[in-house]
Design brief:
This protein is mostly helical and about 300 residues long. The protein is built from 17 helices and no strands. α5 runs parallel beside α9 and α6 packs parallel to α14. The termini are far apart. This is Tryptophan 2,3-dioxygenase apoenzyme.
Length: about 300
């Protein structure tokens, strides 16, 4: 049997691969005889993916709402995938950091522009009917979005602005968790009582969040940026890329979300104007109230003072 030099070289590499894990090459090669050829639909799991949309009503536009949010969650997963590469890169180089950062920014740019699908892709009448079946669920309960925040910046920048003076890097994570900015959407700080929305969210994800907060305390995007050479940290293009990411996530994307909510919930003249999760959504969602800024060191005093305010 004649074997080409290229085929022989490949077989030698396969032999080395399986030898390194104490496996018999012949066994794995014979397995190829019985394996099925891969298809697009098997590889992408198309059938499973397309059967994950379950409506709670008979209103057609509810399907748009479901699929749009599922797409968002897939994009969030892509963002976390890139963030993980940055965070766990040893001796990170500026080129690698910048390239992955731009991937993340492009994903968020896409999320931002995609809000037109929600804004113009559903009839107000239909939305105001099927949203009543969603109570008390809320987009607030996207766990992946919270993980993105923890992966982006030092924890102090996610603390409710009213309590940052009493929290530092030595504060127990449990205490810091109780003062994250998004707690304001479902917690009465005067009484300590939490809404059902927040209680259920924490039952499901609190341990995951606390673990992630600790894990990314020293390897978040900001901390990895600070590991780059000083000259690169002062590079105008890299600084602009960091600022673009910060502004897109914490102002542009948030404002697009808020404006869509205003159109359907506040300006439609239908319903009570209340959020499905029961939060004071107009105040909670606006960036000038959230004061969430991933990289405050990269913004001027004037920019920080007017964060989220249209000038």
């Amino acid at each position: 049997m004649n074997i080409s030099e290229n085929a022989e070289a490949i077989l030698n590499k396969i032999e080395q691969k399986y030898a390194s894990i104490d496996q018999k090459t012949e066994t794995h090669l014979e397995g190829l005889l019985w394996s099925k050829p891969i298809t697009y639909w098997d590889y992408i799991q198309t059938d499973a993916l397309l059967n994950m949309q379950t409506q709670r009503t008979t209103l057609p536009d509810e399907m748009v709402f479901i699929m749009y949010h599922q797409v968002n969650e897939l994009i969030f997963k892509m963002i976390l995938w890139e963030m993980n590469q940055i965070s766990y890169c040893q001796n990170i180089k500026t080129e690698f950091f910048a390239e992955r950062l731009m991937r993340i920014s492009r994903y968020f740019d896409m999320l931002t522009t995609s809000f037109s699908i929600m804004e113009n892709g559903m009839e107000v009448e239909q939305y105001m009917k099927f949203r009543n079946t969603l109570t008390p669920a809320s987009g607030f309960q996207s766990a992946q979005y919270r993980l993105i925040e923890f992966s982006s910046t030092d924890l102090i920048n996610l603390i409710d602005n009213r309590y940052r003076g009493s929290i530092d890097r030595n504060t127990p994570y449990e205490h810091a968790f109780e003062h994250l900015y998004w707690q304001a959407a479902g917690k009465d700080y005067a009484t300590g009582k939490k809404s059902y929305l927040l209680e259920e969210f924490e039952k499901k994800y609190k341990k995951t969040f606390l673990d992630h907060m600790e894990e990314y305390n020293s390897i978040n995007i900001w901390q990895k940026f600070k590991q780059l050479p000083d000259s690169d940290q002062k590079n105008p293009e890299l600084i602009q890329a960091m600022r673009h990411f910060d502004h897109t996530v914490n102002i542009t994307w948030v404002m697009q979300h808020l404006n869509v909510a205003i159109k359907y919930i506040d300006q439609s003249g239908k319903g009570t104007g209340e959020a499905t999760g029961g939060s004071d959504w107009k105040k909670y969602m606006h960036p000038k109230y959230q004061r969430r800024i991933f990289f405050p060191e990269l913004w001027s005093a004037d920019e920080l003072a007017n964060w989220g305010v249209e000038i």
